[in-house]
Amino acid sequence: MSMVLHACARVSPGFVGICPAFSLRTGSAAAWHSLQSTIRSASPDEGQMRKTSLKHLITTDELIPLFTIARVPFPIMVEMFGLAGGFRGFWIDIEHVDMTGQQVQALALAARANEMDCFVRMAPAGYWEVTRVLEAGAGGVMAAQIHSAEHAKEFVSWTKFAPEGVRGLNMGGRDCAYTHKPAAQFVEDANREHFVAIQIETLGALDEADGIAALEGVDILFVGPADLSLALGVVGQFHHEKLWSAIDRVADACRRHGKTWGCVAPDADFADKVIERGCRLPTFSTDITVLRRGLESIRSTFAKQFG
């Protein structure tokens, strides 16, 4: 019993949907109520923001190292990053990789279990996709391939309930603790706690970076150096002056409007430079990069044996 309670408490309320069978098997209503109480105690009270949430962390002065889950979307990968230490969260890439809502939910639960937060990067193609991942438990969403401030404003509206936006109300998801929250409290909490990041990786977004940073509801601007270098005609040249001039424009826009910014860091020198410019959310690695480097290390270690 204690092992089950410990495991469920660590996973948090997302386990609630699985545990009724536990109650039926044991035949103990008292055990089930105890289990529910333990699970709820592992989550913040209504109206309080988790100290490990990225929405909270960006209000501090802390550096917030991130990683990316894309090609290997398994909770064990999240736990391995968690055990490595230092990472505060990750983003799930569904712009380039197809994932189900259940996969996103499993990754979000793994984030909670490892005292991290996660958000989902997506193409700004439709309202339904935003709703789906927020209900699955993602702490926020990030829009890729934004081309203007107006484009960003529409995306923000999909993430918020009225009167701040147009999101539809469904209380059966992870972000409503599976109907445990009253409707009014859920709407208030969701509008306050979910965050929105806008990627600056197109020439249109770069030209309107100041307008995007000024938008209410935009919490983070996130530089995509690969696509931005492509748009600038210096693809893959991450230390080119054109790219750094563009990054400086984003940093300046965020500084003017009191917004946080992040960036993928392809190498340590690049990371130092963006952090010096005020980047608070550097992304240091991806799941597939970890696997590739691990295999390269094995091949190097056993070079003699490989022949």
Walk me through what this model shows.
There is one protein chain. With 307 residues, this protein is of the alpha/beta class. The chain folds into 2 domains: 1-43, no CATH class; 47-306, TIM Barrel, CATH 3.20.20.60. 49% of the residues lie in helices and 13% in strands. The protein contains 16 helices and 8 strands. Helix 5 (75-84) runs parallel beside helix 6. The longest helix has 17 residues, at 241-257. The protein is globular and about 65 Å long. Residues 1-27 and 34-45 have low confidence and may be disordered.
Features:
8 strands, 2 domains, globular, 8-stranded parallel β-barrel, 16 helices, 307 residues, disordered N terminus, TIM Barrel, alpha/beta
Overview in brief:
The protein is α/β, with parallel strands linked by helices and 307 residues long. Helices cover 49% and strands 13% of the residues.
Write the layout of secondary structure elements.
Blueprint: H1 2-11, H2 20-26, H3 29-41, H4 54-57, E1 66-69, H5 75-84, E2 89-93, H6 101-113, E3 117-122, H7 127-135, E4 140-143, H8 149-159, H9 183-193, E5 195-200, H10 203-207, H11 209-214, E6 220-223, H12 225-231, H13 241-257, E7 260-264, H14 268-276, E8 281-286, H15 287-301, H16 303-306
Parallel strand pairs: 1-2, 1-8, 2-3, 3-4, 4-5, 5-6, 6-7, 7-8
